[in-house]
Every structure is written in C-alpha cells, then in structure tokens.
Amino acid sequence: MAPPEEPHSASAVEQLQRVLRVLRPVLDIVSSPVEDGAAPAWCERRGWSEFLSSLSDDELHAGEATGLESGILELGRAPEDFRRLFAEVRSVTRLPWLEAAPLSVPAEALRGVPARKREQLRTLLGALAPSAARATRIVDVGAGSGHFSRLSAELFQRRTVAVDRNPALVRNGRERSQQRSRAVGALAVDFLTADLTWEPLTLRASDLAVGLHACGELGDQLVLAAAEAGCQLALVSCCLQKIEAPERGALSRAASGFRLRKADLGLTNLTARRDGVEASLAENLRAREARLALRRLLRARGFDVRPGEEMRGVNRRRAHAGFRELAARVLESRGLAPATDAELTLHGENARTEQLSMRRFSLPRHLLSRLVELSVVFDRAALLEEHGSAVQVLQLFEAAVTPRNTLLFAEQRA
Q1: Angle, in degrees to the nearest 10, between helices 341-367 and 323-333
Q2: 55 vs 40, 60, 78, 360, 410, CA distance in Å?
Q3: How far apart are the first and last CA of the chain?
Q4: Residue 413 and residue 12: Cα distance in Å, rounded?
Q5: Based on the number of CB atoms within 10 Å of its own CB, is 278 exposed (0-12), middle (13-18) or buried (19 or more)?
C-alpha cells in the first residue's frame, strides 16, 4: 500500500473526503459516549475491550495527555484494526504549521489583556499582516471586547469593524478603542451589536474577515458570507456544538450531505493535553470523578439524571471543589437533605473505581475528537474552494496558548 498523501499537499475538497472516509465508519463510536464502567457495545463489537482494560495507569495517562502521539499505537498487544484506524486518524489530522513571526505590540495596548490572549493576538496579528495590507477593511466577527479589532486598527491602519451580539462587551470595547485613539492617534474601531445567528452579515470583496474563536454556527455564517463576497478570511473556530439546531448540516457540495449531531460536535472540546485551559489534567479528572459520584448519589435518591444533568443550576467549575462541596451545593440548590458521610464515602469510592474503567473505554472517542473537528473545518474550507478561493488549513497556536489552534485561511485565487 502506498503511503498516505500528506494532507497539506491536497485540495480542501480532497482533504475533506479523506477525513470523511475515516470518520463515517466510526460514527457509532463518536455518537456513543461512555456513561458507566461497562464496555460499550461498539467496543465489544470491535474486540477492543480486553486491550483497553489492560492499559496501565501510565499508558492511560499518556493517551489522555498526548493523544495520537502518545505511543499507544505502537503497543504490541493493541489489536491490529485499532492500530490501523488510529494511524490513519493521525495521518489525516496532522496539519502543517503556519510560519509567521508574532507581531510586536506596544505594552500599553495590551494592558488588561490576559497573558494567553496576548500570545494569541501577537501570533494572529503577525500571521495576518500581509493580508491586512491587501484589505481596505477588517471585519472582526464575534469580537467580544474587541482586543483584536483595536490592535488591527492601530497597527495596520485599516478601517476596522467589530461585531458582537453582547451589548456590554461592545460598549466596553468601544470605550477602550476611543480612549486608545485619543491617546496615540490610532484609528477608532466601528463597534456594532448584532446577532449573526439571525441577522445577515454582508462583506465586501476587499475585506479581511476575521473570526478568532468564532463559536459554532457563527463560524458557519462567517464562512458563508466570505464565500459569497469572495473576500479574504481568517477563522479560528471554537465550541462547534454551539448551534441552535439538533445537528449541523454540511455547507459544501463535497460533503454530500454529511451531518453531525450537536452532542457529537461537543466531542471536539476534548483535546489531548497535559494541562487544561482552566486547570491541570489531574484537576479535570478529579472534577469528572466528583460529577460521576454526584450522579450516583442523585440516582440513589431516586432521580433519573443523565450525564450533565447532575450539574443543573450549578456552574460546572464547582466540580473542581471536590465531591463533598459539590454535593452540598447541588443538594441545597435542589432543596434536598445534605449527604451523609456514608453516602459520600460509598458514592465517592464507587465513582473512583468506575471512572478508571470509563476513562479506558473512552480513550478511542477522545482519539477521534480532532477528526470530528476537522470534518467541520474542511467542510468550510471546501465550500470556500468551491466558490473560487485558495484555501489553507494550518496550525497557528501552540497548545499551551490555546487548544483551539486550527486556522482556516482563504483568499481569492489570483
């Protein structure tokens, strides 16, 4: 068999088709999250249960922390079809890096911007400097507080429009932009409040449209508008499950009507990395264990709660406080009696044991998360290509800066 073609040497349509060829046969894995300690049906059918159960704690941790690069595919006892599948997943999801020097930004302009966000801004600004020079206007969609918009207007000296649906963020961004404009004579940004889920986005052929972590269908709307206008586009997508409909339909003809459920799109938030954005991997695992123990506690009390429903009315970050504190808060919010020490001990210990099995059986789903993400990214890229754009899909940020690091860049062919 010939070695697989490197993804970046193919067109967006070809890359999409390659991703879908791998993804379609494993949609049963994608759509079936592991909800207890028993081997799921898809795992039993493939004969993977014994292998996954045999993973040592170190092997499991490596798989969770570094994913397809962990060496798990090189384990001699791994089933042949397991190794073959995930070797192919690794091949089709490996993206080239965009080689661009971060842009130098005045320290005063970054005051109040979180450290990780600063690195994202410097990197993206450096990557887009040549594109901004060719544009007459920059349109920042899902702009939030407008940090990127403000810096674009100042550093690129281009008229910049920032669009967000949150009036408070738009107001704050406008005030900060005006203050900076008065202080250094920079161009002020035009801030607009608009919910592009319902309101049309109109772009011009000479625009550079930007979406830094444009969530869910906002990213789709931005791609559709850019394709219609034939303008330059830079999109780093995020939170693909943030859609109104129960499933996402494909945008491109090349996807042949491929659809993904909203719940399945949520899998793309699972990124293999040693440290989470808000907490370490170990802390995130303890939080999941606390939520599992809470779910067992509520079920023992007669409540039929599905995964995720145990946190109803309570911020998910509360799970990082541990099972005891989480149970106290949730039971109080539901008007229930506090947990006894016996309940806390029983459900805490059972959850600890059960989670170890769940983590092992969940590993194949986690290893498919990037594949699901790229099925959406390449569908968007294919649509743009079908409308005459030259398209690149690249890695932009280091994982330590943000796990949402895939840049879709498009411009009209010369």
Answers
A1: 100
A2: 16, 6, 10, 7, 43
A3: 37
A4: 14
A5: exposed
Encode burial over 180-203: b for 16+ CB neighbours within 10 A, e otherwise. bbeeeebbbbbbebeebeeeebeb
Please list the pLDDT of the chain residue by residue as tens digits (414 residues). 233 334 446 899 999 999 999 999 999 999 999 989 999 999 999 999 999 999 999 999 999 989 999 999 899 999 999 999 999 999 999 999 998 899 999 999 999 898 889 999 999 999 999 999 999 999 999 999 999 999 999 999 999 999 999 999 999 999 999 999 999 988 899 999 999 988 889 999 999 999 999 999 999 999 999 999 999 999 999 999 999 999 999 999 999 999 999 999 999 987 655 555 556 778 888 999 999 999 999 999 999 999 889 998 899 889 999 999 999 999 999 999 999 999 999 999 999 999 999 999 999 999 999 999 999 999 999 999 999 999 999 999 887 777 788 999 999 887
3-class secondary-structure state, position 367: helix
**Phi first, then psi: what are they for 116, rounded to 5°?**
-65, -40
- For residue 364, the Cα-to-chain-centroid distance in whole angstroms is 18
